[in-house]
């Protein structure tokens, strides 16, 4: 039995300690907004927050997540109203296919929490998520818009 604090609720699941957090979230908890992309922490589709930091869940074994750590998925980011990054994404029509966007939004939200006024270079160096559709210019614009409109949420 593993206890996880996910989106403000302590949840118990039965899973092997070596199971990646991604699969526990998707399969045991039904939180399918966090996507599987590459399985080797390169693409970022699986990005969630652990204690506010962006983490790639596909390579994070459950054994390395402590019960007191707070996990936030894309489902929990809004917290009652859209997060400024989510609002900017909608306002600027950032996604194309959208598959990578939950991870991209989570990475952007973590960046803005750490750095509320990032430069273009800050964004390019910190947001390493891969978008197959190539909407990087819109991602950059979305992060800048969210920063102006209260990005940390």
TrEMBL record:
Domain [2Fe-2S]-binding stretches: 73-144
One Pfam family matching this protein: Fer2
Ranges of residues in domain 2Fe-2S ferredoxin-type: 5-58
Presence of keyword Ribosomal protein: no
InterPro entries attached to this UniProt entry: 2Fe-2S-bd, 2Fe-2S-bd_dom_sf, 2Fe-2S_ferredoxin-like_sf, 2Fe-2S_ferredoxin-type, 2Fe2S_fd_BS, Beta-grasp_dom_sf, Diverse_Oxidoreductases
Cited PANTHER family: BLR6218 PROTEIN, OXIDOREDUCTASE WITH IRON-SULFUR SUBUNIT
Protein name: (2Fe-2S)-binding protein
Native source organism of the sequence: Chenggangzhangella methanolivorans
